[in-house]
Each structure stands twice: as structure tokens, then as C-alpha cells.
Amino acid sequence: MLTYVPVPLSRVQLGRALPVDIRNPDGRLLLRRGQVLQSEAHRDMLSSHQACMTETDAQAWQRALDRQMRNMRLKGMDMNVIAQLPMPEEILDTDYLEGSAVEGSWLDLQEILRGLLYQGAQASTPLPRLQGLEQKALKLLSADTEECLFVLFQALPDLELGYCATHALLSGVVSALTAAKLALPMSSRMLLLRSALVMNIGMARPQDYLARQLKAPSPAQRELISAHPPNSVDILRGFGVQDDEWLNAVHWHHAPNEAKDHTGQIEVVQLLHLADTLVAKMAPRLSRPAMSAFGAAKSLVLEANAQTQQQRVAMASVLGFYPPGTYAQLVNGEVAVVVARGEKATTPHVASLINAKGMPMSAYVYRDTRHADHGVRMPLAASQVNVRVNLERIRRLRQQHGV
User: Fold this and answer.
1) Contacts for 235-238 with beta carbons within 8 Å, 24 or more apart?
2) pLDDT for 350-381, tens place per residue?
3) pTM
4) 100-319 maps to which CATH number?
């Protein structure tokens, strides 16, 4: 039996050929592929008939749009413009792939997620796309946790990448890793990741705008920030989400203390809130510098109470004081990037990038911070390091030193 999903009519251009058959929910053909949406009245007529398409066509059409968005991003186009693109006229045979698989690395996931968050309620086939993102993120996380943290912490200060998606992925990873540290079931870890991906979908564009804004949020922006959890839930319900645990986690992620009367997943909501807050502290804004991971971890523990102490300590332990992808100055004066967590929170594995005289090194040099002369003196913000880090060289260095 065929499954039908709504056609995003608002994103279909007038006068352009449609690449899919348009039907009503019972399967009766309304418009054949290749035919044209002729006018606004024609659009309204199709809307009144609840215009649908097969789920297979919908997924292929969305892949065609994702491919188009990625190509335009590579050409340097602004993401705000790209996210408002109409649905494409052409679907390639390669767009008709089985399942909801997502290919690529963490930055590919970040780009796909950013497009979905920007589209918000207008997103086409969002649930299969979210499922694909979740599955790929879990696969990448289990394959190499250090690289996951390295890539996402490297991406966090780059506001041009789109803060909303980086924040979502890093919050999901941090909360899922903390849940594993606390020996919570896999279902809870997946719920945390799933919830983090979309908790801010109700304000994705404003979230990116606020990160690049020079002044503090206006009263209207503060109101939007306060209203975004229920707005995000409304969007998820519009997607067809009926999972109360998922909806409750998103709804209460800013107010976990108020969630007790509404959900049995208090621990999940609290972890999501802590990760959301922690990542926000470590993210820079044009209006203020980022808090160092060391400072954020310290505040995480110092602000603990009887109800949250175990979770806060576990989250600080998972990241360490110097997470992969962040920077530090060593006792010998060198500037290094953290490549992996160490045995202790204070002894990460690092690669020196800049020598004690302030000159970039021709080759990355591995340093074991357990040794006194290579110990960490202090954390550094990304803005203090004017060297672009090459991930492939980091991979080779980690492989050479078994970290």
C-alpha cells in the first residue's frame, strides 16, 4: 500500500514543471508530473484537495533540494537565501535511494540539519530526514568519539557555518555521552540526541542571527526565545510526531523543574537542559566572548545541587576541562589544539601548532600533557589562535601515537 505525504505547495514555483505526480489522499491523480502549477488560484485548488505525493517521490524530491542547497553553499551563497529556495524542477535517478540514509561526515550532517531547521514547518519529509541524521550521528559517534568532539568544537566558534545546527549536534552528543556515563539505557541516549536536534527548530534563524548580533537581545527577541520550546513542539506535531517523550523533552528543555508534572523522563529533560546551557556558554557571540570549556565545566560543577550533582559531575567528566577541538597554551609556551581526551580531565592529548616564539610550526607535534614541561598552562579561545587546523593531519598524528 502506497503512503502519501503532503506536497509543500508554498515552495512550488508558478509556471514551472512539477517533477512528481500530485494526488489527493485517496490516490486520485490531480496533476501529472511534467505539468505546471499555473496560478495562485490553481495552488489554492490543489491545497483544498489536500495535494499529496508518494513518500518515495517526497524523499527523492527532498534529496534533490538538499543536493541543490549543498552545491550553492559550495559556491559561497548565503545560507539564508539558500534555505528559501523553491523545490527543484528536476529529480535525478540517483535521488531515488532506498531508506533515509545520510552520507558524509559531521560537517555534512551539520549542513543537512541546518537546512532542515531553517525550513522549519515548511520542511518536506522531515521525519525520514531526522531519522537519517540521528542514525548517522550515532554511527559516527560510536566509531570515533574523539573526532566527533574535535570537529564539533572546531565548528562551534565558526558562526558562518550556522550556530543553530552546530549547537544542536553538540548538545545531542554531550547529553548522549553523559547518559552513557550514567549507564542510562540506549533508548534514553537516542531520545536525547533526537530531542537536541530539533529543540530549537522554533527559532533556528533567529538563533543564528542572535549569535552574530552585536547588541543584547531586544524585548521582542527575548519573547521569541521564551516562546520557542512550545513553538518547536507545534512544528514537530505538524511533522506528525506523536511521541510524548520526545515532545515533552523539547517542550521542557528550558524549564526542567517544571516538567515533573508532565513527564516521567525528568532525567532526560534535565540532561538536555544542562547540555543546552553548557554548549551555549562555550559558544562565542559577536556581543560577548565564549566561556572556556574549563570555565564552563567548573561552573557546571559549582552550580550543582542535590538533584543535579550526579548529572553535572558526569557531564564535566565526559568532556574533561579541555575537550578535543579546543585550544590551550602549554607550560613551555607552545600553543596546542586538543586532539583527544586524556586519562584525567587536566591531561588531554594535544598537538602543538605554534612555538613559544609565536611562529606556526611546519608540522604538528604531539605532546603528552602528563609531563610537567608539556602540561597545560591555560585554555585559549579560538579567536586567539590564527592557525587553521587540518583534520587529516590530526587523524594521522592520532594514529601514529595511538590516541
Assistant:
1) 235/120, 235/121, 235/198, 235/201, 235/202, 236/198, 236/201, 238/121
2) 999 999 999 999 999 999 999 999 999 999 99
3) 0.78
4) 1.10.3210.10
